[in-house]
Amino acid sequence: MRKDNYRGRPYRATVESVPAALLLADPEPDIRLLLERRLTRDGFELVPPTGRFDLVLAGGVEAVERFAERAPVIVLGHEQADPVDRIHALRRGADDYLPGPFDYQELVERIRAVLRRVAPRGGEVLVAGELTVDTRTRDARLRDCRIRLSQKEYELLVVLAREPRRVFTKAELLHDVWEYRANSRTRTLDSHASRLRRKLRDAGAVVDLVENVWGVGYRLLPSFPDN
Q1: What's the mean per-residue pLDDT of the chain?
Q2: Are 168 and 159 in contact (CB under 8 A)?
Q3: 108: which strand partners?
Q4: pLDDT band, residue 141 (cuts 50/70/90)
Q5: Which of 6, 27, 102, 207 is the right S-S partner for 31, CB 3.0 to 4.6 Å?
Q6: DSSP-assigned states of every residue in 20-38
Q7: For residue 188, what are the contacts with CB-CB under 8 A and spacing of at least 6?
Q8: C-beta separation of 167 from 213 below 8 A
Q9: What does the pLDDT look like over 35-49, one tens digit per residue?
Q10: Which residues make Cβ contacts (< 8 Å) with residue 155, sequence separation at least 6?
């Protein structure tokens, strides 16, 4: 694992507003020490196998078989791993596979992506400034004004509203909303973000609430002051 390339600010990783509980299952000792320090700093809770956990970081396929029925599993593969190893892990029940040496920030983003995919969606009311999204009724409102959105505009808004102010990369949004491959070249995201921005304006937003962060992706509510 490269140890000198993570410079991101700490964030609070949550599943339904509760710190995500992670289990480290059989990683190599030096990787375990590094992950314990950084994941704890970044707001994750590390728990033992006897506790409740939201996701497993596994050092091998054997751990997939032990834990896949209890939580999603990301396998941290060896540097010598090949496509056969990855296919084997995914067929055994792994949700993702990250070969070594890996970048810590990429691992964090993969953890976030898996947690978003498996997080319960029912009964969720998202509040971001004066914007509210009720996922039970699919009702999006800015103050008291209802915002009429297409299916993909709504899904894009939900992803952004779950972590307002965080910059989502275009690859993340294309994967989470459209299930596109990371290297897909398309203007779909940009056109939907533009329409969503315009509809929020029409609903009464005095600034553009969907910001295009040049060269990176999009974030929601950049102009709202921090709490």
Answers
A1: 80
A2: yes
A3: none
A4: very high
A5: 27
A6: PEEEEES--HHHHHHHHHH
A7: 174, 178, 180
A8: yes
A9: 999 998 888 889 888
A10: 177
Peptide bond into 225 cis (omega under 30): no
Locate the domains of the chain by residue range: 14-118, 125-220
CB 86 within 8 A of CB 54: no
List of E strands, 26-153: 45-46, 55-58, 73-76, 96-98, 125-128, 131-134, 139-142, 145-146
Query: Over the stretch 188-222, which tens digit does the pLDDT of each residue have?
Result: 899 999 999 999 999 998 888 999 998 899 999 85
Beta bridge pairs of residue 127? 132
- CA 71 distance to own-chain centroid: 16
* Tens digit of each residue's pLDDT (9 = 90 or more) over 105-138: 899 988 988 887 776 555 578 888 889 988 777 8
CATH number given to 125-220: 1.10.10.10
DSSP 54: S
Task: Give, to the nearest 10 degrees, the angle between helix 104-118 and helix 170-178.
Answer: 20
147 half-sphere exposure, CB direction, 13 A CA radius: 28
Q: Which of 117, 192, 189 is nearest to 149 (CA)?
A: 192
CATH topology of domain 14-118: Rossmann fold (3.40.50)
Task: Please report, to the nearest 10 degrees, the dihedral formed by the alpha carbons of residues 97, 101, 103, 108 taken in order.
Answer: 30
pLDDT tens, 169-178?
A: 988 898 888 8
φ, ψ of residue 50 to 5 degrees: the values are: -80, -10
